[in-house]
Amino acid sequence: MDQLVIEGGYPLFGEVTISGAKNAALPICIASILCDGEVQLTKIPRLRDIATTIKLLSLLGCSLRQEENRVWVRADNLVPDAPYDLVRTMRASVLCLGPLLSRLGQARVALPGGCAIGARPVDLHLKALEKMGARFELEGGDITGYCNRLHGARIHFDFPTVGGTENLLMAATLASGETVLENAAKEPEVVDLAHFLIDCGARIEGHGTSVIRIQGVDRLEGCSYEVMSDRIEAGTYMVAAGITGGELSLAACPFAELEPVVAKLREMGMHIQEVGDRVVVKSNGVLECVDVETMPHPGFPTDMQAQLMALMCLAQGSGVITENIFENRFMHVLELVRLGADIKLSGKTAHIRGVKRLNGAPVMASDLRASASLVLAGLAAKGTTTVRRIYHLDRGYETMDVKLARVGAHIRREQQP
């Protein structure tokens, strides 16, 4: 198992190229099983979760080829079984449930695993698919579903669930009639999935709003498609510039999708502007703490909460972060406290009082974004910070240690004792 060793206190300067979005690439890869013919996907990030998805697609009977950031998929010999050994490592695997039912009329998918940041039950997915004509049995840790052909339905989500919206969006493309998704998730990654499906021949309207309408078609064709850039990775490197007092130029940055993050960073005192085809981010002054609430898009994203908290640890004054999306997403707090942060938890809120200095220490990552927050804190801390269990980080950040080293970070990867 690898760990990262960081010698903190060095400002970052230079250019970082933002990779393709993990949270868009995963459902788009899975959606390829809906298609007749070959799907060619570009800007696919090289991540643990992507490798898991490729293995999953292979076990589902797809033929695949991968070269660098390109993946070719043909779903010619599709089978309906998604086994536990893969699904347990990545919650997004449950997204194959809707497409398998829609394409084959049957699916057997193990109950998912992944980061321990909340229950995230799949009940919403199942109840919605039942409205479209599916029948389910739960036995031995597997969800087994059957249908003749899914039919259109009006589905209202109690909460704008990203995974539920994506699963039903994919399932509805090959269903008979019209499906209407109400209170749907508006995240840019959902929009990117819809754009991919439309390029394959799907009839979708309203993506990016709370009401999505899908007219089912008889078949989807393969296509070539480039995945959007990763807004969370871009936001993380923005914080990296701020927490080290440096200046970074971000290439392939999805600036329009980062509005709530940019607004808070500017409120803290950071300078962020588009310069040509780059976004330049710098902090050459004192930052101030702010109050933040995570919300579904277009609110402040929960996936940036931990990173912003790391930045606030070294800002002036005090601020409050309220986590409204996941009930267990403050596990990084105790690790930041180990570095010298002043944070108090009260239910779903974290009260942060800025300190003058963090000090390096061994810390342990509990989930993907927690990993990023600890790396960011380590970049600014005095002395040596060792971040253990970085397999979480490798699930969602493409060669983060390499990218940081190129812009001046003193960081190395080594085998954990």
TrEMBL record:
Domain Enolpyruvate transferase: 7-400
Annotated phosphoenolpyruvate binding sites: 22-23
Record-listed 2-(S-cysteinyl)pyruvic acid O-phosphothioketal modification sites: 115
Main location: cytoplasm
Gene Ontology CC, one term: cytoplasm
Protein location: Cytoplasm
Matches recorded under Gene3D superfamilies: Enolpyruvate transferase domain (3.65.10.10)
Binding site for UDP-N-acetyl-alpha-D-glucosamine: 91, 120-124, 303, 325
A GO term for molecular function: UDP-N-acetylglucosamine 1-carboxyvinyltransferase activity
Family label: Belongs to the EPSP synthase family. MurA subfamily.
NCBIfam families: murA, PRK09369.1
Protein name: UDP-N-acetylglucosamine 1-carboxyvinyltransferase
Organism expressing this protein natively: Desulfoplanes formicivorans
